[in-house]
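Usage

Read records sequentially. Each one opens with the input sequence:
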Amino acid sequence: MIERTFIEQGMRKIQLEKYLKKELDRAGFTGLDMVKTPLVTRIVLHVARPGLAIGRGGQNIRQLTEEIGQKFGIENPQIEIQDIKQPELDAKATVDKMVGLLERGYSWRSVAFNTIRNITEAGAQGVELVLKGKLSGKGGRKRKQRIAQGYMKKVGNQVKLVDYAKASAYPKAGAIGIKLSIIRPETVFPDKVNIKEIIKSQQDKEKAEKEAQKEKEAAEEKEKAQEKKGSENEAEEKAGKEQEKKKGNAEKKEEKKKHEGEEKTASEKEAEEKKTEGKKPGKEEKEKKKEAVKKSGKEEKK
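and closes with the structure output:
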């Protein structure tokens, strides 16, 4: 059955987490992600101190890869180390750090309040720490201590957005149980509404819309001005062409008149020449007649 396969995979992941927790305790191991691909199985390890997890020249990574492949039957494991950017906001890393301090003999009170202060300074929206066990010291009865600050979700589906971790410390006086809940700065709850931010966002949106409208109107006015300028230029060009055409027509008319005047003067000259030519022979004939009359008169006298 397919359910059996999922159960086996979940059990294998739990066993692998326990093994890696033991091997990478000093590196601050908090969890892992497994991604299976057709070629390899990628195992992403989340650690607070990646240098200790990698080892000198990657020696620890190679050793872990071989042991994981042999012990857990994972084909072609490929280990990747991912650094925790803010260990103070990671519940698992913080709880493991508290366990180490308590087991080394530090006072639970100083450890608890320093932890709350560090988480708050890191920017958490809310934090809740519950310590239960042998807090009174040797010979005292067990008791419970709760330290909380900020906003915290306790019930409902939104509890999944809260980072939660628990662990047990075993100092000399007796066992102490630790439960830590952290709401990170980037967490947004659906029911948590900030009216001021909503009003501000609406005002910013309206302002952006008005600016966009102004820009659009300015662009339209600019286009209209360009169109008007283009039409004026076209009108000027048209008027210039008409003037040139008129000027050309006037020049043609002047040339025509000049040509006609030249032809007229030439014809008039020809007519005058012909007239003068017609008049000259008449005078000669008269002179000849006079000479002939004179000659005839002289002959008669003789």
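Summary fields computed downstream for this record:
- The chain has a mean pLDDT of 84.
- Residues 195-301 form the longest helix (107 residues).
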